[in-house]
Amino acid sequence: MVSFKVFAILPYALAAAAAATSPMPRDTPSTSYLILRTCVPPTNCGAPVGNCEFCCAGRKPNSNTCHSHGGVCPDGTTEYHCDDATR
Questions:
Q1: Is residue 4's pLDDT more than 90?
Q2: Secondary structure of 36-76 as H, E, C letters
Q3: Phi, psi of 32 (to 5 degrees)
């Protein structure tokens, strides 16, 4: 009886092990959010203050990929996130 249970579960265990070791596809809609984004820093702001986030001292950054997520810099100005998902 025990050997029957082992053989009944074996296909599921092998499938789970194979799924855990195989690389994830990067072009399917369900995993598209996992694609790494390229940071395109603006030239009219200082150094990054986070993960591709910049404080521009009240100026609008000159990189087309910069946008705000509602963050605020230490000086009270808008914090911009400058990533590009197309690269």
A1: no
A2: CCEECCCCCCCCCCCCCEEECCCCCCCCCCEEEEEEECCCC
A3: -65, -25
